[in-house]
Amino acid sequence: MGKIKTHKASAKRFTFTGSGKIKMGHPGRRHKTGLKLTKRMRTLRKASYVSSARMDDLKRMMPYK
Asked: Has residue 52 been placed in a domain?
């Protein structure tokens, strides 16, 4: 049986932690940042973790990470 291909767009956006969680950056930080509040931009700076509802899909997309 052949290998499963990694979904490259997902591999660039998500990283696995040592405990098995998936870390992601927040969207909405690139364009139109002058219109957004400073507090909002500060909270978007921090990374967050993927919800448990999306974990199975992402593990299927990135089988070797």
From this structure: yes
Q: Is residue 3 included in any domain, yes or no?
A: no
* Domain ranges, residue 17: 8-61
Asked whether the beta carbons of 15 and 22 are under 8 A apart, the reply is yes
Give the model confidence (pLDDT) of 11-50 as tens digits. 999 999 999 999 999 999 999 999 999 999 999 999 999 9
Task: Please name the amino acid found at residue 46.
Answer: K
At residue 16's C-alpha, the angle toward residues 55 and 46, to 5°, is 95
DSSP assignment letter at 15? E
Q: Where are the alpha helices (DSSP H) in the chain?
A: 8-13, 38-45, 52-61
Question: Among 56, 57, 48, 52, which Cα is nearest to 15's?
Answer: 48
